[in-house]
Design a protein that fits this description.
- Keywords: DNA-binding, Transcription, Transcription regulation.
- By secondary structure, the protein is α/β, with parallel strands linked by helices.
- It has two domains: 85 residues, Winged helix-like DNA-binding domain superfamily/Winged helix DNA-binding domain (Arc Repressor Mutant, subunit A, Orthogonal Bundle); 208 residues, 3-Layer(aba) Sandwich (D-Maltodextrin-Binding Protein, domain 2), CATH 3.40.190.
- It is built from ten helices and twelve strands.
- Helix 1 crosses helix 3, helix 1 packs across helix 4 and helix 2 crosses helix 3.
- It is elongated and about 75 Å long.
Length: 298
């Protein structure tokens, strides 16, 4: 990689991370080198691109304009190299933003096939069970469940599952009778990320039932909600795919199966402001194919 091209990629990483040291760790470059390269880049373009303070590194107005142009150029360059090779082989680094549960249950088990197809590509899973800032975290492709907030990011729906309410057999054996949604009010509910709102709405044959649920445990991590349900701490709401293994093993049982509790959608997200890199598009396509049989059966 040429010195100037390296400087451009390093500038993008610094701008997105807001830190010289974080960018250096990402690109395996010492922090002093990062500072020197960025200073040389600013001298070359004749403008201050970044404002340095003891707390953060932020873009100047000139830096914001430069970043938008540089990211598009780098994306076009990656696209051109990918097309010229003509083999479909991907190279470089793909930063994927994903929840820990989805990474463990879905991505990791099938990731080997994708990496085998592209031996020159490195995938970095940036796991966060809250809503990530794709720009700040330098994410090339993200996966998000549920309703998307208004955003300029490009989203592609790649999966959909039933939302279910589940509980452990041991819990259900001693819990109050549960035959209609209103009965949930007498149960302990684990409020997880899949459906943390207190009002749960069910539908059946045109009938709509809304019930407010309560519980002693709330979590932002699906794996914790699932484990808590298996441990008999109460009922939990999640996608059918999110607890498929536990349902199959009999560790969890679906309750109110005749009631429609809605759907959980999965989207592939490409950050706004720049073209998606070839690896991001390819991995989104790959995951869509992997998930097709699963969500079509749910």
């Amino acid at each position: 990689m040429s010195d100037h091209l390296f400087a451009l990629r390093l500038f993008v990483r610094v701008a997105r991370k807001g830190s010289f040291s974080a960018a250096g760790r990402d690109m395996n470059v010492p922090q002093p080198t990062v500072s020197r390269v960025i200073s040389q880049l600013e001298e070359r373009v004749g403008a201050l691109l970044l404002t340095r303070t003891t707390r953060a590194v932020t873009l100047t107005e000139a830096g914001q304009d430069y970043l938008a142009r540089v990211e598009q150029i780098l994306a076009d360059l990656d696209e051109a190299e990918h097309a010229v090779r003509g083999t479909g082989e991907l190279r470089g680094v793909l930063h994927v933003g994903v929840s820990s549960s989805f990474a463990q249950r879905v991505i990791v088990p099938c990731l080997g096939d994708f990496l085998a197809q592209h031996p020159s590509l490195r995938v970095e899973l940036i796991m966060d069970d809250t809503r990530q800032n794709f720009i700040a975290d330098g994410v090339d492709l993200g996966f998000r469940f549920g309703v998307l907030s208004d955003s300029a990011a490009v989203a592609r729906k790649i999966g959909q599952w039933k939302r279910v309410v589940v509980g452990a057999p041991a819990y259900l054996a001693t819990a109050p009778r549960l035959s209609v949604p209103a009965d949930l009010a007498r149960h302990s509910v684990i409020l997880g990320p899949s459906h943390s709102g207190q009002a749960w709405v069910f539908r059946r044959n045109g009938e709509v039932a809304s019930v407010r649920v309560t519980g002693q445990l709330a979590t932002t991590v699906n794996e914790v909600a699932t484990a808590a349900a298996v441990a008999g701490l109460g009922l939990a709401s999640m996608s059918a795919a999110g607890c498929a293994a536990e349902l199959q093993a009999g560790q969890l049982v679906q309750v109110l199966p005749d009631w429609d509790f809605g759907q959980v959608e999965l989207h592939a997200i490409f950050p706004a402001g720049r073209a998606a890199i070839p690896a991001a598009r390819a991995f989104a396509d790959f995951m869509a194919r992997q998930l097709a049989s699963l969500y079509s059966a749910q």
